[in-house]
Design brief:
Protein name: Glycosyltransferase family 1 protein
Number of domains: 2
Pfam families: Glyco_trans_1_4
GO molecular function: glycosyltransferase activity
Largest sheet: 6 strands, parallel
Distance between the termini: 13 Å
Number of helices: 12
CATH topology of the largest domain: Rossmann fold
Structural class: alpha/beta
Number of strands: 12
Strand content: 5-15%
CATH superfamily of the largest domain: Glycogen Phosphorylase B
Organism: Mesorhizobium hawassense
Helix content: 40-55%
Strand order of the largest sheet: 2-1-3-4-5-6
Shape: globular
Keywords: Transferase
């Protein structure tokens, strides 16, 4: 099929690296691996940072112009066979796909759409109504987590759903890694206000309780809250923490390979691409049993998931892996097997092909 791919929140060509951009690129690769011809339909960005009518009105005007452009293009060169929209939610509804799909009689598909009744207020309620309308129209809504599926089903009970487990392109992790330092902790996360800062704060609190153990840590990440994040770790010995800042995605595997344990609390994580990469590199994970994290980490097998907000439990899990190297080694091997065999691009492409084949 000729598939028009669109990601309203962030184009796969966006210059800033993130899990959204990475998953958009992985989905395109998976679709192409399944034999489809994928074209990026538009780079028009829809992002409502705040629920402001003026901003939304401006986006709607741009959306009409972009839809008109695609209409002219398709009238001239022929329409695609399917519209595929990635990551719709209350801050990033699809303002062009549903109308174009209806006009050109195209099957409309969403992936990783979400709906939260907590956001049904003011302008964001209007934006969520657009998401719900798109989900209802869709021939298929591909959910990455049960949490998202339940949220969508509550809002649009009669919608068509399918499940696709979060995955990554594992090609960068195929070679057997050199043995990293078992007491080297690794974190890869952006530094921005809200859940990210909260996760860094919890991590700093945990590390402050295990100063008697011989750990060191590499931190990959940067952002507007960088100073606030570093301030959380000010009470820890400076020589224990290596601040690497933002690095190219291609350099991340080497950082992961150098470590022994991946640590990140995970407040607000949809699921967390970084958890998948860490396990692919052979690092067991310590995180919280929160949000979508359980969809990508197998508690007791590829890492430990601790109760939300329980700093003591989170700390104890890190200490356990630091002091029980045999257990850490077994978890490391299972983590790597789990990702390479079950959460690879190849596995995702095969399942995605099965899902799309069922669309009338």
């Amino acid at each position: 099929m000729r598939i028009a791919f669109y990601a309203p929140l962030k184009s796969p060509n966006h210059p800033v690296a993130s899990g959204d951009r990475q998953m958009a690129r992985a989905l395109i690769k998976a679709l192409e691996h399944g034999g489809h011809d994928v074209e990026l339909a538009s780079e028009f960005r829809v992002y409502l940072r705040e629920p402001e009518s003026k901003s939304f009105d401006a986006l709607e005007i741009e959306a009409r112009e972009e839809a008109a452009r695609l209409t002219r293009l398709w009238d001239r060169d022929g329409k695609p066979d399917l519209w595929f929209s990635y990551h719709l939610y209350y801050k990033a509804p699809d303002l062009i796909g549903p109308e174009l799909a209806s006009t050109f009689a195209l099957p409309y598909v969403t992936a990783e759409a979400s709906h939260s009744s907590r956001r049904n207020a003011g302008l964001w309620a209007d934006a969520q109504a657009l998401v719900a309308g798109a989900v209802e129209q869709a021939a298929l809504n591909i959910c990455f987590t049960q949490r998202d599926r339940h949220g969508l089903a509550d809002a649009v009970p009669d919608a068509a759903f399918g499940m696709l487990s979060p995955f990554i392109d594992t090609s960068a992790f195929r070679e057997t890694p050199a043995r990293g330092c078992p007491t080297r902790l690794v974190t890869v996360a952006m530094m921005r206000p809200g859940d990210k800062v909260e996760s860094y704060r919890m991590l700093a609190q945990a590390l402050g309780s295990i100063g008697h153990l011989p750990w060191t840590m590499s931190v990959v990440g940067d952002g507007p809250a960088c100073d606030e994040v570093r301030a959380q770790f000010a009470g820890l010995p400076a020589n224990r923490i290596e601040w690497l800042g933002a690095i190219e995605p291609a350099a991340v595997p080497d950082v992961l390979y150098s470590g022994g344990i991946y640590v990140w609390p995970g407040f607000g994580e949809a699921y967390g691409v970084a958890y998948l990469e860490a396990q692919a590199a052979g690092l067991p994970v310590v995180a919280q049993d929160i949000a979508g994290v359980p969809e990508v980490v197998r508690d007791g097998q590829t890492g430990f998931l601790t109760p939300p907000g329980d700093v003591a439990a989170f700390t104890a899990a890190i200490e356990r892996l630091l002091t029980r190297n045999d257990e850490r080694t077994l978890m490391a091997a299972e983590a790597r097997r789990f990702i390479l065999e079950e959460r690879s691009l190849r596995a995702a492409a095969a399942h995605l092909a099965e899902l799309l084949a069922k669309i009338p």
